[in-house]
From TrEMBL:
<dbReference type="InterPro" id="IPR002051">
    <property type="entry name" value="Haem_Oase"/>
</dbReference>
<keyword id="KW-0349">Heme</keyword>
<feature type="binding site">
    <location>
        <position position="182"/>
    </location>
    <ligand>
        <name>heme b</name>
    </ligand>
</feature>
<keyword id="KW-0408">Iron</keyword>
<feature type="binding site">
    <location>
        <position position="16"/>
    </location>
    <ligand>
        <name>heme b</name>
    </ligand>
</feature>
<dbReference type="GO" id="GO:0020037">
    <property type="term" value="F:heme binding"/>
</dbReference>
<keyword id="KW-0479">Metal-binding</keyword>
<feature type="binding site">
    <location>
        <position position="131"/>
    </location>
    <ligand>
        <name>heme b</name>
    </ligand>
</feature>
<dbReference type="InterPro" id="IPR016084">
    <property type="entry name" value="Haem_Oase-like_multi-hlx"/>
</dbReference>
<protein>
    <submittedName>
        <fullName>Heme oxygenase HmuO</fullName>
    </submittedName>
</protein>
<dbReference type="Pfam" id="PF01126">
    <property type="entry name" value="Heme_oxygenase"/>
</dbReference>
<dbReference type="GO" id="GO:0006788">
    <property type="term" value="P:heme oxidation"/>
</dbReference>
<dbReference type="InterPro" id="IPR016053">
    <property type="entry name" value="Haem_Oase-like"/>
</dbReference>
<dbReference type="GO" id="GO:0046872">
    <property type="term" value="F:metal ion binding"/>
</dbReference>
<dbReference type="GO" id="GO:0042167">
    <property type="term" value="P:heme catabolic process"/>
</dbReference>
<feature type="binding site" description="axial binding residue">
    <location>
        <position position="23"/>
    </location>
    <ligand>
        <name>heme b</name>
    </ligand>
</feature>
<dbReference type="GO" id="GO:0004392">
    <property type="term" value="F:heme oxygenase (decyclizing) activity"/>
</dbReference>
Length: 253
């Protein structure tokens, strides 16, 4: 694992290298494996989106509350906010009274509580949670969008607002923005100790996400055949962020 030292590589690179194993575990949850294989049905998907709604509501409220913080202010990009997008998707999947139909699962509550706790004790660590969610949504999430649309045969313009970023409609614009985001990470005023804590917190953020996804495994199982379930649960995919060459902006930073 990348351990920041006084000769520390850029923080964005430390975060990527320091979370490779966690990323691989997240990709190997059954929910993710089913999604990338186009095997998802609406029930587990809408429950997952409901969980994400609670998580993003908390994350984005706390990022907003700490927008003047010396670390958070530099990594606060309101254009990335997902709460409203998730509200649109939940209205599509649950109907107009979606708010009365959803409630946070046990692991979702734990995730949300962690966000409020660090916002209270050490707000700089919110940067790790923002990194894990937003960079994921802008990366592998984009491939999942297409899989969801075709698996559920979604009507034009509905059901995947979560993966749509205003002003970032193409792979090129998203790639460029990820460069901007990594530059912002690299310029955060963090010392070695805080950098180490951020990597630890990013790994915890991945774990909290995995826990939420694991809770949905039985829902997923109910929607696929036994043979598919066997195949999916025994498949071990290599992590997408392992062995990636450093992006150009990380080399030149
Ligand atoms: C099927 C599931 C997934 C696939 C196929 C996938 C794929 C990828 C790929 C290919 C990249 C590299 C993009 C690039 O360098 O431009 C990436 C980056 C990333 N993903 Fe995922 N991902 C998945 C799930 C997740 C999940 C569930 C999370 C978070 C909970 C996540 C968080 C991230 C983050 C934070 C990065 C940025 C790594 C960096 O610092 O460069 N991913 N993902």
């Amino acid at each position: 694992m990348c351990a920041p030292t006084s000769m520390c590589p850029p923080l964005a690179l430390c975060l990527r290298e320091g979370t490779q194993q966690s990323h691989s575990l997240a990709e190997n949850t059954v929910l993710m494996k089913c999604l990338r294989n186009g095997l998802i049905s609406a029930e587990p998907l809408r429950q997952w989106m409901a969980s994400l709604y609670f998580v993003y509501s908390a994350l984005e409220l706390e990022m907003y509350n700490h927008a003047d913080h010396p670390v958070i202010g530099r990594i606060y990009f309101p254009r990335l906010e997902r709460t409203l997008q998730l509200e649109n998707d939940l209205a599509f999947y649950y109907g107009d009274n979606w708010r009365r139909q959803i409630q946070p699962s046990r692991k979702t509550i734990r995730y949300v509580m962690r966000l409020h706790a660090i916002a209270n004790d050490q707000p700089a660590l919110l940067a790790a949670h923002a990194y894990v969610r937003y960079m994921g949504d802008l990366s592998g999430g984009q491939g999942l969008r297409a899989k969801i649309r075709s698996a559920l045969k979604l009507p034009e313009g509905l059901g995947t607002a979560f993966y749509e970023f205003e002003g970032l409609p193409t792979a090129e614009t998203r790639r460029a923005f990820k460069g901007v985001y990594r530059d912002a990470l690299n310029q955060l005023p963090v010392d070695t100790q805080l950098a180490t804590q951020l990597i630890e917190e990013a790994n915890l953020a991945f774990k909290l996400n995995c826990d939420v996804m694991h809770e949905l495994a039985s829902q997923v199982k109910a929607t696929v055949s036994e043979a598919t379930w066997e195949l999916i649960t025994h498949e071990n995919l290599p992590g997408s962020t392992a062995h990636l060459p450093p992006p150009i902006e990380l080399v030149s930073a």
